[in-house]
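Hi R.,

Here's the chain you asked about this morning:
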Amino acid sequence: MNKLKVLTVAGLSSAALAFASFVNVSAVTTVYPTSPTSTSTAGGNISGQPGKFRITRKVTGVPNPVTNTFTYTVTADSGNPGTISGSLSSPFTIEMNDNAVSGGVSTKTADIDFSGLSFSELGDYSFTVRETASSDATNYPRDTKEYKIYVSVRNQLDSNGVPTGTYEGIISQMTDGADGKADAAGAHAFTSQVARTYIQASQIVTGNMAKKTDCFKYQIIIPANSPVVLSGDKYSVSTTSTCTGNPADVTVGGSSNYIYMKHGDTVTIGGGATSQIPIGVSYQIKLTDAQGYQTTYYDGTARPDLTMPSKTTVAQTASTFNTQNKTEIRNDKYADPNTGILMNLWPFVLLVVLAGTGTIVVVNKTKKNKA
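And here is the predicted structure, written out as tokens:
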């Protein structure tokens, strides 16, 4: 007589389900995404295709399409009720290729196919899913959490509740493994906040002919560099300047990215909560019109060609952040009176004149006394 064993199906329903236990169980080769009688517990991670389970990857805090590849492994846990034969095509990847963004979130899915596996015994089998790599881990950090997928291998029953001898595997919802219970639909997506930085430029003017109200026009040059930044990506602009013409954002690969600054102004590019610049992006700043100012200095170095050497953005926590991501620009304007004498010689000329005048006065007075 067959022995009846009662099992609880992890991640499906809290109700107990009866399984017939056999000494020699034929391998189960059919894996279904959910039980025909428990569809409400399937959750958002079930793909709807027989034998396939869907994992979801989210990147949050991004304004532009995402290009990155995330890699996963799926391994059977120890302590499963029977042996598992066959294989899953591991590692798995979720490839985001210029993936769209909605509300600051980019989402992509991939289906894991369990249909090639066979299970030697009835019971509940668990698998662990891990995210093992990110192609650009600097900007798109890896999610280090581990999740569980449960496959319940059961004997189908006839209308009288008698085992039919046909076996099926039912994939339950992915959980975080902390409590072994299914959570709300789609709750367990691999997720990480994008890592970003910003660049900043400030303006000062010096010289006896400089005017604090003069506005300078600069071109911001950010070339496309796939996959870190793509042509057409946009990053917000914020400024303290009252100069007219500052844009709302700059565009990667754009030729009309101009900002305007006068003395004391600061312009920040990519400083918004969801519009920051990726780490590792090259950029330049170029003055388009010197307006009669003699020399332009970028970070204290004179640039006769008016163009700042290329810089590469670093993380805000980097020790080189202030030199790589921030640029102080100084424009000088001096002029001398049209006398043919340099301004810095006037103090010495004045001393000579005064001394000479004093000598003449003394000489004249002496001559008068002799008379």
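One quick note: Helices lie at 321-324, 346-370.

Cheers,
M.
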